[in-house]
Amino acid sequence: LMVSIEEKTPLYFWFKLAFLVWCFSPITKGASKIANLQVMEVVGDFFFKSKPTTPRGAARFDFNEPPVRDRPKGSGALAEAEVRNARNSRDNRHNEKPRKDSAKSDFKLSKESLDICSKLDKYTLILINKFPAKVIEANHNKKGGVHTDLSKASTTHGWKETKKGWVKKKAKVQAIIKIGKGDSFKFPILEDAHFGKTKFSERLIRKLIRFETLFPLQDTYIDVSPAAVDKLLVDLKLAPGMAMPRARHDFAEMESNSSMSRLFFYGPGAPFVKELASDDPNIHLGPFVVDFAEDAKRSVRLGFREYGARVHFSPKQELTAIYDYHERELVKPGDPHWEHAKCLVRNNFGMRMTFINHLIHTHLCCANTTVNAMINNLSPDNPIRRLLTVFTFRTSYINSAAAESLTPELSMSHRCSALTYASLVGAMQEGIQDCQIFRPFPQWVEGKELIKMAKVGRFPFLEDGLNYYNTIRKFVQAWIQTSVDTNYLDDRNLAQLRDFYYEIKTKCLDFSYQPPHFSLDAAQDLITQFIFNVTGYHELVGSLVDFACSLRHCSARCRPGATTNDLQSFLMCAAVAALTSIRTPPLMSDFPNFFAKDGAPEWEIKVWAAFQKDLGELVVLNKKKNASRPHPFRYFQPDQLECS
């Protein structure tokens, strides 16, 4: 029997099995020991003394509440929870004092920072203790890759070279992201062409921190000043310029009326700005609106308030009113609930931008769909695959991390937001169904007044976006036309391009926008939009460090009546910002080991060099425009972008 087992099963399988038994056995409790040791490195073993257990789904400040995942509306539990929060969270735990000889940490925490950490849950402590150091190390060692890493080997995944040419083989799937039930919400993640499969140890850690027995869902509220949080970020090396990248734009705060206008007209909130019809009943509040109505129906966990707000702006981009969908109240500047209404908007924006526009639309619907279609249909010598290889570098590796870190129950997105998991899944599913990520960018903005503003430099999202999009399209046209002229895009490669296009079009049947039938022009539009999405648009929607690096900015959930951000949610957002900041090669790179190498045509260097020249001219133009704008807008500035 032993011989049979050893012949059929690799030895490492038994080591994994033994480790898992040790982790989850009720006798050894190995996983609990690992988790406790990790947390003790931050705050010492005092953290585990006399700590009450929180029911799953209940707020941390409410130790006696039954396990409630979906709080019924109108139950009155919110006000009671706030009272219990003040009593239990501030009084009981505030008196706990750490034993100085037991605290161990990778960082030198001040007394104030240590006191804040002592009130946090184990899950948040793991994030803010271990992840910053790993991110700093990864960036220092250039783990995200450099421009010299791209080579012929980066293009061969899913194919095998033989004497007769390239032969397709089955690409290995390393993870499958399932957002609810149904094939429409399923995203297979292939092994990364350059970085390979995610390490078993990394996948195990991501699973362990979602293990409810070790890290229960504990929502906490801690009253702390923005200055103390800034000091905590520095102590933990999580501040901008450390684990988090330096912000591209200086938002000193996002609490004032003017800063909210900047967020939506000169910042990452620009994709949400729409123009009201002239006969709309709310036109008297201003022609421009940001509407998060779809989030008003989502159920939230105990202790938090519902999402859902509509923001109105005047022709001069001034904030005029906010409609609170749950309270059914129109709030204007000077009203008693004005500051709370703005806090609701900031956090609704933070939740939707991070988990829908960034994760669902850009990473899964666009990047993952395209890289899978590329590997499945385009051989390594196909000129379109060689073009796309630059812009898909490390994509599968990053998306495989999202499979464990951001989409499952008890993942960062679930804990960071106020949503119950069923509501989070519903929001993500609707995000997939409403996705228009492959629609050409010139069709994104339709309002006449918004187009007029862009022409006079008052809506740079559209103005700079069009300039960047047209620069990319010129490059893609030149690449494809040269491929045709040199017979590099022959009948075989053209047939592969058609199959590539239709695989994406088939996936888009699940989205609200479907590309037209195949033609070379349609393929050029699709490839142009893909490059635009994974470079410039990804910089915009993934700019967490711009809008989530201070307690005075945005997080992803809001408490009833709150005017400032939730510390626990903010710290998780900061951790996500750090994790997504591992740098890939800059867009403006020459990739010397890739273009015109290993039998590839010499014209690749010429076409890429012309693209780099156009990007350089665009940098000069953007800087000139930013010098005369009320606020700079660098999200589509090529020298600020990464290649993927």
N-to-C SSE string, H for helix and E for strand: HHHHHHEEEEHHHEEEEEHHHHHHHHHHHH
Strand line-up in the sheet with most strands: 5-6-7-8-9
Number of helices: 21
Q: What is the residue-averaged pLDDT?
A: 85
**Strand-pairing-aware structural class:** alpha+beta
Biggest β-sheet, characterized?
5 strands, antiparallel
Bin the strand percentage: 5-15%
Report the uncertain regions. 1-6, 42-106
| CA(first)-CA(last) distance | 50 Å
Assign an overall shape.
globular
Cα radius of gyration in angstroms? 25 Å
In short:
The model is unreliable at 1-6 and 42-106 (pLDDT under 50). With 644 residues, the protein is of the alpha+beta class. It is built from 21 helices and nine strands.
Please tell me about this protein's structure:
- The protein is an alpha+beta fold and 644 residues long.
- It has 21 helices and nine strands.
- Strand 8 and strand 9 (329-331) form a beta hairpin.
- Helix 3 packs across helix 6, helix 10 crosses helix 14 and helix 10 crosses helix 18 (520-541).
- The longest helix has 40 residues, at 338-377.
- It is globular and about 70 Å long.
- Residues 1-6 and 42-106 have low confidence and may be disordered.
Structural key phrases:
46% helix; 6% strand; 644 residues; five-stranded antiparallel sheet; two-stranded antiparallel sheet
Task: Summarize the topology.
Blueprint: H1 2-8, H2 11-24, H3 30-43, H4 77-92, H5 111-117, H6 122-140, E1 159-162, E2 165-168, E3 173-178, E4 186-190, H7 200-208, H8 226-235, H9 257-265, E5 274-275, E6 288-291, E7 309-313, E8 319-324, E9 329-331, H10 338-377, H11 383-391, H12 395-405, H13 412-416, H14 421-433, H15 448-455, H16 460-485, H17 491-507, H18 520-541, H19 544-547, H20 567-579, H21 603-627
Antiparallel strand pairs: 1-2, 3-4, 5-6, 6-7, 7-8, 8-9
